[in-house]
Amino acid sequence: MRVLITGANGQLGRELVTTFEARSYAVIATDRTTLDLADPESIRGAIRSGRPDVVVAAGAFTAVDDAETNRDTAMRINGDATKWIVEAADDARSRVVYISTDYVFDGTLNRPYVEGDRTNPQSVYGKTKLAGEQHLRATDTIVRTSWIFGRHGNNIIKTLLRLAGTTPALTFVNDQRGKPTSAADLAQCIRDLTVDSVPGTFHITNTGETTWFDFARDVFRAAGHDPERISPVATADQVPQRQAPRPANSVLENAALAGLGHHPLPDHRDSMERVVKELLR
Predict the structure, then answer these.
(1) What is the DSSP letter of 266?
(2) Most buried among 140, 159, 198, 237, using CB within 10 Å?
(3) Quick one: pLDDT at residue 59?
(4) Between β-strands 181-182 and 148-149, what pairing exists: parallel, antiparallel or unpaired?
């Protein structure tokens, strides 16, 4: 199997490359220099020359707040580029696995979101990612995930470890709930769905829901810092206010994955502790 990965230098992309190569699949790892998501000809050329069996579309415009003021760019990279990927994949007879987000929901439900729930994105980022979803074919796979952390790229764990040495007191919101997800765990699950050619929409997250406040304190605790240095704050009282609205409830139920008999991903706390230990080495 030949697997072309977009966004291969991102925190999830790098884990995808590692996990596919570990099973000896032929990986075509692309970044902006080899596949520019803003350029349809670059996309077509990379897929035509790579002749992949599967395209894992992990590249995206992920700067949630910046998307609010860069709407056209976000839509081109998240929405239009997905259309171009699907068209090129159709010509190459390739499948597409598209990485999406909890932001396609409005976060108002009082229970976890399942795959069939109505989408209603409130942010530009969420709207552009949903636009990408809508270009997928019935034979393709959509993977929605949330609160990704890992060894690579920029993420909350790295931010917390950096701030631990410079900022005596921190505040994190305690009224946004979700499931933190390890990039490494997510990549392995995506690999399994890809290899088995499973179509449809899947929510994939680690087990265990939490708030940003509680997760931040867990990270401090795992790193040997005093969690009492972190205080809770309501989203409405956060300073400065974020440009993009955040879903209050980002908890994704992995219902479709369970329906396949797939074992749940590990508890996010266990995976977080492993990442903290690796980053502190």
Answers:
(1) P
(2) 140
(3) 97
(4) parallel
